[in-house]
Amino acid sequence: MNHKLKTLVISFIVGLGLIIISTLISPFRFNPPVAALSAQEQVELIDNLGNYHYPIATTSDLAQKYFDQGLILSYGFNHAEAALAFREASRQDPNCAMCYWGLAYVQGPNINAPMADDQVPEAWQAIQQAIAVSNNASSKEQAYITALAQRYAAQPTADRSSLDLAYAQAMKQVAQDYPDDLDAATLYAESLMDTMPWDYWQDDGELKPAAKPILATLESVLARNPQHPGATHLYIHATEKEQPTLAITAADNLCNLVPASGHLVHMPSHIYIRVGRYQDAVIANQKAVIADRQYLASPHPESIYTIGYVPHNYHFLWFAAVMSGQGEIAMEAAEQTAAIDPSMIENPEMSGVLQHFSAVPLYTEVRFGKWDKVLETPAPNPELKYATGVWHYARGMAFTAQGKQAEAQQELAKLQVLTADPELAEMTIWSFNSTASILKIAAEVLTGSLASLEEDYTT
Fold first, then answer.
1. Per the CB 3.0–4.6 Å rule, which of 37, 67, 282, 386 could disulfide with 435?
2. 289: left (phi > 0), else alpha (psi -120 to 50), else beta?
3. Helical packing angle, 385-401 and 351-367, nearest 10°
4. Burial of 367 by CB count in 10 Å (0-12 exposed, 13-18 middle, 19+ buried)?
5. How far apart are CA 368 and CA 278, in angstroms?
6. Separation between Cα atoms, residue 131 and residue 142, nearest integer Å
7. What burial class does residue 166 get, using C-beta atoms within 10 Å of its C-beta: 0-12 exposed, 13-18 middle, 19+ buried?
8. Side-chain half-sphere of 20: how many Cα atoms within 13 Å?
9. For all residues of the chain together, what is the average pLDDT?
10. Is residue 20's pLDDT more than 70?
């Protein structure tokens, strides 16, 4: 591959990676309900989740352990598994108000997933049960419960904004009333983030006025406990878009804090890839992959975590390996990213991102000049238009590299047809970038590579 062509390819991959890391995994609307356990089943206590502990009013040591497990899992965005832990905690101590609080809390929205209608009944029932037994709770716990009750209604509502804002205002009061409770402060910051998910910064790079309390609150927590798992996680998300260097210390602290939480192990890489620490990002995601592989080996609920967060680790590993020139690691990660349930592609809300995942191996082969492998790759199902477009792009790049101008032009023509497809204009990756816009970039790269083949450096 000549130098100019290689530069074009790398520029496209870098741009593609910036799309990946700027949109992340938000918002994810597939949120299956958690199946109830039978009376005979007991949730597993997971090893190696760190030693974070939040003492609650309970007569059961096991209820306390399950509560702690639920809290740390929720801080790691494994809300479905956290729900099982909180439910088990309430079974161990039916009079534990905070156990019901936890179950209600994890049914709500977060920065990556709005609240599904089928989560409303369980959230409502759980918070009502927490209220019913709150005479067993401390005054601080009662404040937690009263605040969370502001977040839910008995019936689903099309617009949750007033409920989310009411909860944020209530948590602000809890954090003010109990200034030494770092979890109250962390939950307050999260509640604010939920009112403006992924929209904390202005176009000029300045923090939005409404988002300033988020950073101030999280920085206050981290100043007192630099290893708070929830605050470090949220601080990374709050700063990564515009000021990633602010969270370098938080990222370093989070690396080994909760070894069994794949998502928390992965999270430092959100900062590392933005500050050029690609090898550290590779290592973080390799560890996250191992952690989640161990988690998936045990019984677990199907959820956003298993369908979204687990492949997210491989996707980040792929990008970090591509950026650090580690072709073998990148290809393995690409294949794992693409190893998805084909039936999920039929979900209209998931089709764009899952087609993108399926195309990552082709992007990788182009990046590392594996032209024979590109041309050996069979065509996708033609109904998968975005994946088909990437296939034409990759073939065009391969033919260009082999000096086969006519064949490359044919692939470009087919790709350009797809860039104008109205279906692809509507299909997005994580609700941000349309698949048509990405294919348009691919078409421009292929056009440039053809011009380079003709030694036309002005087109």
1. 386
2. alpha
3. 10
4. buried
5. 17
6. 8
7. middle
8. 25
9. 92
10. no
Question: What would you report as the CA-atom Rg of the chain, rounded to the nearest whole angstrom?
Answer: 24
Q: Is the pLDDT of residue 35 over 70?
A: no
- For residue 425, the model assigns a pLDDT of 96
Task: Give dist(CA 281, CA 273) in Å, integer.
Answer: 6
Task: Tell me the residue length of the chain.
Answer: 459
CA–CA distances in Å: residue 436 to residues 8, 439, 440, 454 = 19, 5, 6, 27
- Tell whether the torsion through CA atoms of 206, 177, 72 and 308 is positive or negative: negative
DSSP assignment string, 381-421: PTT-HHHHHHHHHHHHHHHHHTT-HHHHHHHHHHHHHHHT-
What per-residue string of b and e applies to 428-449 under the rule 16 or more CB within 10 Å gives b?
Answer: bbbeebbbbbbbbbbbebbbbb
Please list the residue range(s) of the chain that carry CATH number 1.25.40.10. 34-301
Rounded Cα gap, residues 278 and 260, in angstroms? 22
Minimum mean pLDDT range among 25-29, 131-135, 253-257: 25-29
Report the alpha-carbon distance of residue 435 to residue 195 in Å, rounded: 27
The single-letter code of the amino acid at 370 is K
Cis-peptide into 27, omega within 30 deg: yes
What's the CATH superfamily of 34-301?
A: Tetratricopeptide repeat domain (1.25.40.10)
Q: Is 102 in contact with 89 (CB distance < 8 Å)?
A: yes
What percentage of the chain carries pLDDT values higher than 90? 83
User: Do 396 and 416 meet the contact criterion of CB atoms below 8 Å apart?
Assistant: no
Residue 249, strand partner residues: none
